[in-house]
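Throughout our pipeline, every protein is held as a single compact record rather than as scattered files. The record that follows is passed on verbatim for readers who wish to inspect the format:
___
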Amino acid sequence: MTTTRVLLADDEPDIQLIARLALKRAGFEVTAVTNGAQVLAKVAEVKPEAILLDWMMPEMDGFETCARLKANPDTKDIPVIFVTAKAQESEIDRGLKLGAVGYITKPFDALSLGSQVKAFLGKA
C-alpha cells in the first residue's frame, strides 16, 4: 500500500499540529509549511499528491498560492484543498474557480479530516 504525500500550509501552529496528526493517522505522509511561498519552494522536492492550503497566511495567501500552482504546468494537476475558517460562499466559489477540488472549514473535525481529504481525492 502506498502512502499519499500531502503538503499542508497553515501558519497557526496548533492547527498545523492537529491537522498533521489527523492526516498521519489516516495514512498520509505530511510535510507542513507556514505560508504559500514555502509551498512553492517545497512542491518540487516533496512531490505531493495533494496540497492543503489555509487561505489567510503571511507572505502569500492561499488564493495566490493556488493560482500560481494552477498556472505552472509542473503543478497544475496537483489537487488543492482549502482548509480555512473563511466559509462564506463567495470565498468557497473563488477557491473552486481557481481550481481547488474541495473546501474544508475550520474548525474541522480531526477525526474525519483524513476521510474528507480522501473523499476529495477520490480515494474514499
In short: Residues 4-109 form a domain with the Rossmann fold fold (CATH 3.40.50.2300). The chain is about 45% helix and 20% strand.
